[in-house]
Amino acid sequence: MLKLFHNAASPFVRKVMVVLHEADRAEEVELIHSVGGPLATENMPLAENPLGKLPTLVRPDGPALYDSRVICRYLDDHFDAGLYPVDRQWDVLTLEATADGIMDAAVMKTYEGRWRPEELQYAPWVEAQWDKIDRALDAVEARWMPLLAGPVHIGQIAMGCALGYLDFRHAERDWRAGRADLPDWYAGFLDRASMQATLPEG
Ligand code: BEZ
After folding, report:
1. How many C-beta atoms surround the C-beta of residue 60 within 10 A?
2. Which of 202, 194, 168 has its CA nearest to residue 72?
C-alpha cells in the first residue's frame, strides 16, 4: 500500500490529498501523521527523504517520492486522474510553480514566527515574503484567470491550496483586499468536495 507522511496543516500535503480525492483514490493511501520541522526532526521522514520534509510518499515497489510536484504527477499517472492537460501543460505547470512559490513564502513566514526567537526575527525579510506573495497573486489575476476556469487541473489545485493556506495561517494580511477575480474563483473552487475533504487543521 502507498503511505504518505502527512500533516493536515501543510498546503503541500493538501495538494497531494486533493489530487487523491479528485482521483477518488484517497482510501488507497495510508496516512502517517508527522509533526515537526527543520529544528524538530524526530517525527519527520528522514530515512525516506534526506530533506526530512512533507509530503513524502512511500511506495511498496520503489524508492520514496518527494516533493509535492513529483508526488502529484506520480499519483496522476498511477491513478489516471487526467489532471495534467497536454495541450496547456507548460502554462498549467507554471501556474502550479507560482502557487507553490506562494506556499513556500507563506510557510517561511509561519516558520519565522514558530521556530525563530523573537529577537532574531527580521521584519524586512518577512515583508519580502509578502512582496513575493503579492506579486504572484497580481500576476495570477492579470494573466492566469482563463487558465483557472474550465476542467480541474493541477494548476488550479495548487492555487486553491495556496489561497487556503493564506486564509488558514495569515488571514490578517487579507489577500482578497484590492482583488476581485481571484476571490470569486476561489470561493467557487473551495466548494469542490476534494477541497472540503482536505480543510487544513492543526
Ligand atoms: C503549518 O503548521 O503551517 C505547517 C505544517 C507543516 C508544513 C507546513 C506548514
Report:
1. 7
2. 194
CATH 3.40.30.10, domain 2-79, yes or no = yes
Q: Where in the chain are all domains bearing CATH 1.20.1050.10?
A: 86-192
104 CA distance to ligand 1 middle (Å): 10
What is the per-residue pLDDT across 185-200, written as a single tens digit (0 to 9) for each?
A: 999 999 999 999 999 9
CA 86 / ligand 1 centre spacing (Å): 32
Interior angle at CA 102, CA 75 and CA 42, nearest 5 = 65
- Residue intervals in the chain for CATH 3.40.30.10: 2-79
How many A from CA of 153 to the centre of ligand 1? 24
Q: What is the mean pLDDT of residues 134-140?
A: 97
Q: What is the pTM of this model?
A: 0.97
86-133: per-residue pLDDT in tens? 999 999 999 999 999 999 999 999 998 888 889 988 999 999 999 999
Q: Is 54 in the pocket of ligand 1 (CB under 6 A)?
A: yes
Mutation test of ligand 1: which of 4, 6, 10, 100 has the most ligand atoms closer than 8 Å to its C-beta?
A: 10
CATH assignment of 86-192? 1.20.1050.10
Task: Name the residue with the closest Cα to ligand 1, atom 2.
Answer: 9
Angle between helices 68-79 and 154-170 (to 10 degrees): 140
